[in-house]
Amino acid sequence: MQRKAAEDLRKLVTDALVERGFLYEGAKAFSTPRRLALHVAGLPVAGKAVREERRGPRVGAPEAAIQGFLKSAGLASLDQATTVTDPKKGEFHLAVIEREGRPTLDVLAEILPQIVKSFPWPKSMRWGAASARPGALRWVRPLQSIVATFGPETETPDVVPFEVDGIVAGTTTYGHRFLAPEAIEVRRFDDYVPALERAKVVLDADRRKDIILHDARDLAFARGLELVEDEGLLEEVAGLVEWPVVLMGSFDESFLDIPAEAVRATIRANQKCFVLRKPSPLAEEVARPSAGSEGGRAEGTAPALSGTTPTSGSSPQGGGETALAPAFILVSNLEASDGGLAITAGNERVVRARLSDAKFFWETDKAVKLEDRLPKLDAIVFHEKLGTQGERVKRITILARRLAFQLSFGMAVDVDMAGRAARLAKADLVTEMVGEFPELQGLMGRKYAALEGEADSVAAAIEEHYKPLGPSDRVPSDPVSVVVALADKLDMLAGFWSIDEKPTGSKDPFALRRAALGVIRLILENGLRLPLREEALPSAFYEQKQKFVFEIQLSGDLEKDAAAFSDQIIEDPAEVDLLAFIADRLKVYLRDQGARHDLIDAVFALPGQDDLLMVVRRVEALGQFLDTEDGKNLLAGYRRAANILRIEEKKDGRAYEAAPDPGLAASAEETALFEALAKARADASAAVEREDFAGAMQALSTLRAPVDAFFEKVTVNADDPALRANRLALLNALRAATLEVADFSRIEG
Q1: Which domain holds residue 262?
Q2: pTM here?
Q3: How many whole angstroms separate alpha carbon 386 and alpha carbon 510?
């Protein structure tokens, strides 16, 4: 919230200045838990003089129009206006408005009070006796003082004269609440920052983050440990302190029997502390002096860290990962006289209590198998129109089994294993640990499944079926994980589309855009062939139509079951709309990957483009083709043909879609183009059929020479009507031939 508040302050002030014609060189905002600050550099002493001519109504216009004109122009009477003559429209009143440049100090005094009073805090409060008055000031916390000065660098700045709710702007601020609570007098920003520093306040949040990070690294290194870095926690902690003091606490090593992720979540969520880990063997090797060297690392120097954390889903306690240490880093806002011993001891007591709770949750959860927890999912409503989590699990299980049968990863996917993983995927939602720390869903399920002896692929899928959670998140590659992840996301999309709960504008409360992007990345990054219209979406929509009350038991003859299932599919308009939504997300994904938007549109303009992997390969092949000379020249020839056709079809009021007659060819160039078109279209079609898109482009490239020769030697608009119509039909055949690979009309450049 602090960074947003600082940015809001900067934007509100600078926008108001620019709106009034005051330009500036730069502006930077700062925030701490107890203050917002803004420094604007390069403002002029006064604004520029303004001369504006404002045209009014005609001479003799109604009195109401005259009075409105005078009021808007700030005139007392028409005597202060002039009359101008328009040769076409007659005489008009004209007001010439001249304004002196306003002093910047006055403009700031006008702007700042309103910004303070209407500041867009997400939550605000009133306080004191004044809070009973209507319109009393609301602020995120009680406002104590305002410092506002303005002036040239060579002169003593003036105080901006304004007050807000009885608080008068001045030059008095205050330092750290406990370490330096005395008043501080400041007039310049260059004095403000060092004065606060002397009063134990670091104004810049990024500098506070840097202090915390480097002190934490150094302290960990001094104890032979490594900091588990956490950018989100670092940002949060830097917003809680004005004078960061880094300390280290410890806890009983027996708590490390709890999964490392649970330890970290407990310490992070409850105490806003960083966990530590024992150095990896590689780090120890780097830190150890080499044979024959004069010495080791300089004292107090921390090792270079990558900033990465243990891989999600694998325990840092073993399996090649570095184990957590029974210690943590806390950040105090005080320089205590005892060196922080009491502060550390207090945090250790709370951490010990929290870890005791986590250990109890862990032991309690291990006593009940995931399978035995499934009935509890029937009591958790997923969505009032889409049933319970238990009903959703049944749908995902059916869909995962079907996808396991349909998809190919270069090897068969175990249908029963995919069904088992899907069945257990949500069971950890009703565990004590996930109830306390929802961010551990999936990960704890994986650990419980491993303890219960489930197959490695089943355990991995329980965690990984949520992935990818965003554009930078890892995509699962294990076939069972991929199948369950697809089933989960497709059911989500089909479900909310079936009840007409779709993303609108910037609103996406159910993260459906993320689900669609997840489907796209799972398919593309695993190289999967999955026609959405024929297989995936019908399966998902079919499950939605079953009213969530049954579970299909496959007969054992998978081909027979799949055929019987396909016979029951009825196309749903919502399904078609969802396919368009996924196509739009694919366009966004490809543009982010650097693909040209016009090539994406050119491929998507073709009918039946629902196999995402083939769409991507076609776009890639088209881009490579158009980068060649043959591709560029064929595109130019296509455009020439399309332009001629468009003009002539509009003029004639008809389309030339009939097949051209080779017998009407009146020149060698026409005959050559007839033959080249027939061969190129057949070859391109055959190449597309076998999914050789580069070959299809190569087939089209053979048209370059005959197309160039045709336009050079042949007059399309011949005097003979039959010859003209046949040549236009020939151009239409060229247009149709390119549609084998893409709609060239969508290509730019």
Answers
A1: 205-286+301-366
A2: 0.74
A3: 13
